[in-house]
């Protein structure tokens, strides 16, 4: 859509009252007038329709298909990690009031690796799992209930 003031092609325009006339303006130009449309983020669902994500999107405890994960990470280590290992690392680090840099130094790793670990974007090698458990005093491995 084209902004009627600056002519910029934007995804969304807002009906904006400026000096007695109503124009369709981009967000930049809308600041100069009174926006008549509520911004999308402020739209409130009327009628008490509480919106919840479908249950299928909420991780269920124990519902994770571990076998699938193993396929994805098959070349990244043998240890089976707890599903929330990234969060465990971060929680333990923060409880010690270590910055990601502090933990990285203790592990002799890069800060970016620590951040990737904590966000779950990097699956630690077995050696790294042991180092993390040692330095943070936590367990990252899944509970040994399935140790067949
Ligand atoms: Zn504009």
Give me the secondary-structure category.
mainly alpha
Kindly estimate the percentage of residues that lie in beta strands according to DSSP: 5-15%
Helical residue percent band = 25-40%
Q: Give the terminus-to-terminus CA distance.
A: 61 Å
**Total E-strand runs:** 3
CATH topology of the largest domain: 434 Repressor (Amino-terminal Domain)
The whole-number mean of residue pLDDT values reads 80
| Overall 3D form | rod-shaped
Q: What is the CATH class designation of the largest domain?
A: Mainly Alpha
Sheet of most strands: 3 strands, antiparallel
Order of helices and strands: EEHEHHHHH
State Rg. 25 Å
Describe the structure using short key phrases.
148 residues; 434 Repressor (Amino-terminal Domain); 2 domains; 3 strands; binds zinc ion
What does the model show?
The protein is mainly α and 148 residues long. The protein has 2 domains: 1-39, no CATH class; 64-146, Orthogonal Bundle (434 Repressor (Amino-terminal Domain)). The protein is built from 6 helices and 3 strands; from the N terminus they run ββαβααααα. The protein has helices at 27-30, 66-72, 85-95, 100-107, 111-118, 126-136, and strands spanning 14-18, 21-25, 34-35. It has a 3-stranded antiparallel beta sheet with strand order 2-1-3. The chain starts with 13 loop residues before the first strand and ends in a 12-residue tail after the last helix. The structure holds zinc ion. Zinc ion binds next to helix 1.
